[in-house]
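COMPLEX REQUEST
Ligand: adenosine monophosphate
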Amino acid sequence: MASIFLKIINGEIPAYKVAENENFLAFLDINPLAEGHTLVIPKKEVDYIFDIEDPLYTELFVFAKKVAKGIKAVVPCKKVGVTVIGLEVAHAHIHLIPINTIYDIDFSKTKLKFSPEEFKATAQAIAGHIKF
Ligand code: AMP
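STATUS: Structure written out below.
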């Protein structure tokens, strides 16, 4: 069965996209730990991130770096934290999360709620600050 992220890639379900190229896509996490919490995925469907072949794996992190700089430019934070979990969605993804303390990257915390307009505004602002 196609993962939910493959449906986003194929445009079958919507997402608040912040960056896209031929091989990768970045979009806002729908249950964010912080404003600007973004997921970066390869378009190729691979479940476990360490199963991605080397060139694509490296490019994924280079793409994520550019997205993180866009997030940092928009969301006030000390740093953009990076984590990979992948226990919920079986399509490799990097979480980019604006953080000020270690507790800001605690996935057991209650997630934030934003309106569609707020998600859209955040995604557009980040997209406007990503330089490729
Ligand atoms: P994990 O696989 O444990 O890294 O978690 C998957 C992440 O994907 C969670 O943070 C979810 O909130 C997020 N997520 C699941 N479905 C969607 C979706 N349709 N759009 C955006 N984010 C999603």
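REMARKS: The mean pLDDT is 97. The domain at 4-127 is CATH 3.30.428.10 (HIT family, subunit A).
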